[in-house]
Design goal:
The protein is α+β, with helices and mostly antiparallel strands and 226 residues long. Helix content is 50%, strand content 16%.
Length: 226
C-alpha cells in the first residue's frame, strides 16, 4: 500500500472517531467505525455501505444470524463474531436494567431487549419472563424452540415455573421469522389460556410481545388482554 493511501486512511479514521465524539456520525459511518476496529488494514467504507443495503439498517445488521453475516463477501468469521458480540452485550445491558427497575417505568427497555434478543432469528423461540411483585425481572426462560412458523407452548409448565419462582407477574415473548406478522389467532388463543391459568393464582399476565421484522407487537397495547 502506498504511504499516501495509508496516511489518508489513518486520517479518515481519526476524523470518524472525532465525529463520534461530537455525535455526528451517519448510519454508515457508525458501521464503518465499528468495522475499523476489527478490520484495521482495509478501507471498510464499501463494506459498511454494502451491509446496510443488504440487511436494511444497523439494528438488522446486529441481529442478523451469524451464518448470514459470515456469508457476506468481505466480512469473515472474526468480524461476524465481533458484530454478534456487540449485540449480546446490548442484550445483557437491557436485561441488567430489567433486573433493577420495574418494566412499566420505561417500556423502551423491555422492547429493546425483546428486539435485540429475537430479531433476526430464523426459527421461532418462545420465552417467558417472570417478574417479582415490583415487576422486576426474576428470570428469562427459553421455554421452547420450534420451526420457522411454529413453536410449542406448555401452559402448565409456565404456571409451575411461576410458582417455583414466586413470580407475581409474567410476560410472554416470541418471534415470527416472517417479517411484519403480528399476532395470529392461535397466538391470541394461547395468550388467553395462559392468562386464565395464572389469574386464579393471583399472578398477572402483564403482556405478550411478538418480534417480527424488527417490529415489536404488544398484546397490551393492542387491547388483546381483556
Amino acid at each position: 500500500m502506498k504511504t499516501d493511501d495509508l496516511d489518508f486512511r489513518l486520517g479518515h479514521r481519526e476524523r470518524l472517531r472525532q465525529k463520534f465524539m461530537d455525535n455526528k456520525l451517519t448510519d454508515y459511518e457508525q458501521v464503518e467505525l465499528l468495522l475499523s476496529f476489527v478490520i484495521p488494514r482495509r478501507d471498510v467504507r464499501p463494506l459498511a455501505r454494502g451491509l446496510l443495503t443488504k440487511f436494511g439498517g444497523i439494528s438488522q445488521i446486529l441481529t442478523a444470524p451469524i451464518e448470514k453475516l459470515i456469508e457476506y463477501k468481505g466480512l469473515g468469521k472474526n468480524t461476524a463474531i465481533f458484530i454478534k458480540l456487540i449485540n449480546q452485550i446490548m442484550v445483557a445491558g437491557y436485561k441488567e436494567q430489567l433486573n433493577k427497575q420495574a418494566v412499566y417505568l420505561n417500556e423502551k427497555i423491555i422492547t429493546n431487549y425483546c428486539n435485540s434478543l429475537l430479531a433476526g432469528k430464523t426459527v421461532e423461540e418462545f420465552h417467558v419472563l417472570y417478574l417479582n411483585d415490583e415487576k422486576k425481572l426474576l428470570s428469562d426462560d427459553l421455554h421452547s424452540t420450534g420451526t420457522s412458523d411454529w413453536v410449542a407452548v406448555y401452559t402448565r409448565e409456565i404456571v409451575k415455573r411461576a410458582l417455583e419462582l414466586n413470580a407475581r407477574c409474567v410476560i410472554l415473548l416470541h418471534n415470527h421469522p416472517t417479517p411484519n406478522t403480528s399476532f395470529s389467532s392461535e397466538d391470541i388463543e394461547l395468550t388467553m389460556q395462559v392468562k386464565d391459568a395464572l389469574t386464579p393464582l393471583d399472578i398477572e399476565l402483564y403482556d405478550h410481545y411478538v418480534v417480527s421484522g424488527g417490529i415489536i407487537y404488544s398484546a397490551r397495547n393492542m387491547f388483546l388482554l381483556k
